[in-house]
Design a protein that fits this description.
The complex is a heterodimer. By secondary structure, chain A is an all-beta fold. Chain A contains no helices and 11 strands. In chain B, strands 2, 5, 6, 10, 11 and 12 form a 6-stranded mixed sheet that branches. Chain B has a 4-stranded antiparallel sheet with strand order 3-9-8-7, with no helix packed on it. A two-stranded antiparallel sheet of chain B has the order 1-4. In chain B, 31% of the residues are buried. At the A-B interface, strand 4, strand 5, strand 9 and strand 10 of A face strand 5, strand 6 and strand 11 of B.
């Protein structure tokens, strides 16, 4: 049973470009969560999605960031017009309704 | 809003010794979940142990055990027989229902040979 998969593992973008981060949840998990970890800090919640629905996006910056979890395919976290402050590790986690959240290996985004 | 506090930023311990990591939290909910996650240098977030608030019995997983004091809102992690592979950042986290995890700032544990 494969774990949570994220790709790419490392992503380098120049300021102003777009970043797309993908997350495939564990088999049988319909809840996906995105977290961001800035250097030397803990993880901060960004968004919680179920298939085709955004349940809680209270941690998402109001501009440039969006997320989706389509009926088919992985969840996508999209960052438009990236800035240096977006450089961070982005983690995806998945779970069943109230079960433990299991994390993917993360995507490390570097903005030049 | 729920908050999680880890007041010790860093600790070190000798191999084979026992160490306790502290965590306190604040919530008005009565049924919730508490977790300890480990983040080694690989940066992968690994679940160490989980505690359901409605269970009075403290959770244990091999060398890892917790001391859950619901009234005091305290959730400490005890690592027995520390191993070099336990060197990592440790994060305490709170969750209510299917909602997001709220993390503490983490504690860096170093196990010395």
């Amino acid at each position: 049973n494969a774990g949570v998969m994220q790709n790419p593992r490392h992503l380098v973008r120049r300021r102003g470009q777009e970043a797309r981060l993908r997350c495939s949840p564990m088999k049988g998990h319909s809840h996906v969560y995105w977290y961001r970890q800035l250097p030397e800090e803990g993880l901060k919640f960004m968004v919680y999605l179920q298939k085709e629905n955004i349940i809680d996006e209270s941690g998402m910056p109001k501009e440039r960031f969006s997320a989706e979890f389509p009926k088919e395919g992985p969840s996508i976290l999209r960052i438009q017009q990236v800035v240096r402050g977006d450089s961070a590790a982005y983690f995806c986690a998945s779970s069943t309704f109230t079960d433990t959240q299991y994390f993917g290996p993360g995507t490390r985004l570097t903005v030049l | 809003a729920q908050t999680v506090t880890q007041s010790q930023p860093e600790m070190s311990v000798q191999e084979a010794e026992t160490v306790t990591l502290s965590c306190t939290y604040d919530t008005s909910e009565s049924n919730y979940y508490l977790f300890w996650y480990k983040q080694p240098p690989s940066r992968q977030m690994i679940l160490v142990i989980r505690q359901e608030a409605y269970k009075q019995q403290n959770a244990t997983e091999n060398r890892f055990s917790v001391n859950f004091q619901k009234a005091a809102k305290s959730f400490s992690l005890k690592i027995s027989d520390s191993q070099l592979g336990d060197t990592a950042m440790y994060f305490c986290a709170f969750r209510y229902g299917s909602e997001k995890l709220v993390f503490g700032k983490g504690m860096k544990l170093t196990v010395n040979p």
